[in-house]
Amino acid sequence: MNRPEIAEKAVRLVERRISRDKWPEYYDTKRARFIGKQAHLFQTWSISGYLVAKLLLANPSAAKIFVNEEDPELANALLSANPRRKRGRKGFKQPFHCMNCEAKKRATRQTCPNFANIVTGLEA
Length: 124
Hints:
The protein has helices at 4-17, 44-58, 72-81, 115-120; strands spanning 27-28, 34-35, 95-97, 106-108.
């Protein structure tokens, strides 16, 4: 935001091409020599991005509307009002299929009696 000359140069470059190229979604290559192979034309965000850039160059103080100052009191009130924030995270249990259990059912490492023997290779 402190280097308007770069923004002015970018807008000048865009002004020469983007309208003639039918407002493409994106350009290929670093130098933007080609319109992207699958780029859609007449894109609203291409047009609006250009217009916003022009307006911000004309009035740089308008950039304040894009910067939000967080109100810590409001953020704390929202966090305390959310019931999901009060619960702790559930532990992650990785399921696996134990081939050695007689039931041959899905089990967790904590519930399989053969898990320690399978991992260490001590099972007979």
